[in-house]
Amino acid sequence: MPETLAAVDVGTNSLHLVVARTTEGGRFEVLTREKEMVRLGAGSDEMTRLAPDAIERAVVALERFQKIAESVGAPLRAVATSAVREADNRNELLERARREAGVEIEVVSGVEEARLIHLGVLQALELYDRRLLLCDIGGGSTELLIGERGDALASASFKLGAVRLTERFFATEGLHPSAVDSCRRHIQEVLASFDRAVERHGFEVAVGSSGTIEQVLRLARAGAGDEPIRTLNAAVLKRKQVAAVVDRVIDARAAGKLGDLDDLDPKRADIILAGVLVLEGVVQRFGIKQLVISEYALRE
User: Could you say which architecture CATH assigns to the domain 111-294?
Assistant: First the structure.
């Protein structure tokens, strides 16, 4: 018997809702998607506290999402990641979500976050029998996982989110010449702890999920004059495309002209530089020639 379910990803940058109906073979059909940019992680690169206005935005979004789920009779599960996980005052959000929106939020570890993203990716791409390296760049953290046949062989969560690094390296107007170099060095230093896992297990295919990576692909296609594509799922993002986008974003940020970049989501413009530098760092460090895009991630 088909069942309708609802899931919310309470992320550092945005809240995502997916409503889906189960189908045969343990798969599902997505009925509704909603997103609210709430910036739970804004205000500090350490992310030790959730700002009152960010909590308010999140609760309002959760109230709306709960009404959507109730309208189709779908039980709702909400999972929170980096920003809530690290915040000393996370209980303020959890209690208000429970009291005002009727939503119980489960706070998951970075490793559990990577596991859930992996399961979502396997719903989107036919890669079950192949060893994959998964990269998901969020607002507060980046998850890396090596998996095969549904099992995680190695996984880690790094404090390399697009919002977090923007707060640390690119919080001021303009672009200081040393900021990009400092950010790049920091990314490489943090990623180094995953070297042994990649050397030990290897991988056949690299997979990228998250809004940041999808945005990079859109920028790459727009920069090359390619027509927009309806779906990004299973599309390929090549290493040279990442490099080209990095150069364009750096130049545009330095000139104060990010708004002139074709196909750049205005709500993501202020954090795209940090996000694309994380992707560049992952691609370079682990010798990735191309990534297959998954439109499914944690919430799926």
Answer: 2-Layer Sandwich (3.30)
**DSSP code at position 259:** G
Q: Does domain 4-108 have CATH number 3.30.420.40?
A: yes
Q: What is the mean pLDDT of each run of 10 residues along the chain (300 residues)?
A: 88 92 81 92 75 95 98 95 92 98 95 91 92 96 96 96 94 88 98 98 96 95 88 95 97 92 91 98 98 85
The neighbour count for residue 91, using CB atoms within 10 Å, is 10
CA distances from 227 to 71, 209, 221, 234, 237 (A): 37, 21, 7, 17, 15
What is each CA distance from 68 to 72, 208, 223, 300, in whole angstroms?
7, 29, 37, 17
In this structure, are strands 132-137 and 205-209 parallel, antiparallel, or unpaired? Answer: parallel
List the chain domain ranges.
4-108, 111-294
